[in-house]
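Researcher: I'd like a structural prediction for the single chain below. Treat it as a standalone chain; there are no partners to consider.
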Amino acid sequence: MRPRTTARTTARTAARTAARTAVAPIARAPRASRVAAVLVASGLLAALTAGCSTPGEDITLGKDWDGAQSYVVVDIAGTEAVAGVNPLTRTAEPLALVPRHDDDDDVLAPQLVRLSGGRWVLAVPRKDGRPDRLYRLDEGSRKLVEQGDHDALHAILPGRTLVADAKGLDGARAGTEVLVKDPKRWNVQRKVQVPGALAHASADPASDTVCLATGSPQDLTVHALELTGGKLTSRRAPSGTDVQGLACSGGKPVAAGVKATRPDGDQPADATFTIAVTDAGASITADTGRIEDIQVQDGTATVAVAVAVGERTEIVEVDTRSGKELRRTGLKGTGALRALRRADAGWLAYTQDAVSVVDPGTGKARTFGLPGAYVAG
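Model: Treating it as a single chain, here is the predicted structure.
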């Protein structure tokens, strides 16, 4: 996971612009009636809050909560919604609208995170560094339930029994503060200071260890932080590699990047990986392309690396114990990858307006559309 982006996606900006400039736009309801519509549509039980508003009365919410194996936040003509993704039926539909308030931040993107045990939480940022609003995605009652305010976060990192909130400040050389919390009550159990500005962060839901990369691209340090005791183990990032992603496998960091110096001229059609495994973790270096995401398969030593090479995205699975490449799948013409996630049906590769289901057994991929532009997930 990269720290929370400081700018909305291009897709979201385009969607909002299109919504404002469309010919014969649908008249928007007054703010007060819009609030009431949101509470009915999303099933929120929270009392009306002054200044609360969410457009989107014309959005029809779906009902496939049981079939959803993953969730993402999408932008539908300027309105954000949590969409459920069913890779078996190859459908995705909005299930709940994201509540909006006047003091919400219009620059930072929300975060949608799956905690250990399968629970999902949604953090909506607010202006001027005020605490995020946190919601729980209640699949039983099929609604978003407000959980109160929590410190403004850059990355929510779910461990096996604990959750880490990384609070790296943009450009802050002083360091990164990590808050270790109990996910049941969200109370802070300890604070850990990590040197350097936060660049990448990842969690291992199978253990209570999170992995962080801090510093500048030319001077990066990789850390493993044990949440239960606060022990921090640090090492320099692999030399000669432009680290562009980080995973946490078995409590050990796996850094992924490309060669810092590459020959001029035509680039290889396929990426070749150099994989180094040590007791402290692993590094995966591609000779060409750009690392778009790296994710660990829960409870295993397998990580999947998505690398963009020209007009093609390759998803490469690697065993971090043996250092061997297991399999790879090529996705053509899908556009820039926004996120790679694991579901029961395989790897889910999200682009701006679509998702591809990659079968880990056959390597085949099937693509279907999202109900809006990808924002977070």
